[in-house]
Amino acid sequence: MEEVVDRSSLASWYVIHTYSTYEVAVRDNILKMVENIGLQDYIFDVVVVFEEEITESKGKRKVVLKKKYPTYAFIKMIYTDHVYYNVTRIRGVTGFVGAGGRPEALTPEEVRRIGLEKVKAEDLGIQIGDQVRIINGA
Q: Quick check: pTM over 0.90?
């Protein structure tokens, strides 16, 4: 019997540089490309990171979503030349961030700091009933 391997565990996060204001279009076009040419086993997620910003206009407060990293999108993928070629051909993509234009994977610390993957309490060694101190956020 063949053993099923979770290929997403082999994937790493990479940074895609885009033209200004093309981040969401690049994300959407990559996701369409994955469906169209069957790269589901190589590309697992594409993210544009937003943060909430409170603005005030005419005495009214309004929450606006603002890109946290303008001109960048993040992609979780297994790097191959075929995947690299297809992603860099997407309209609005100027290339990957890394030495010599070749993708350089983000470290686990960078992935955590950017907030690309949610951290579970079990991963931090926190048990029910443990006392914790919140130092940032709601």
A: no
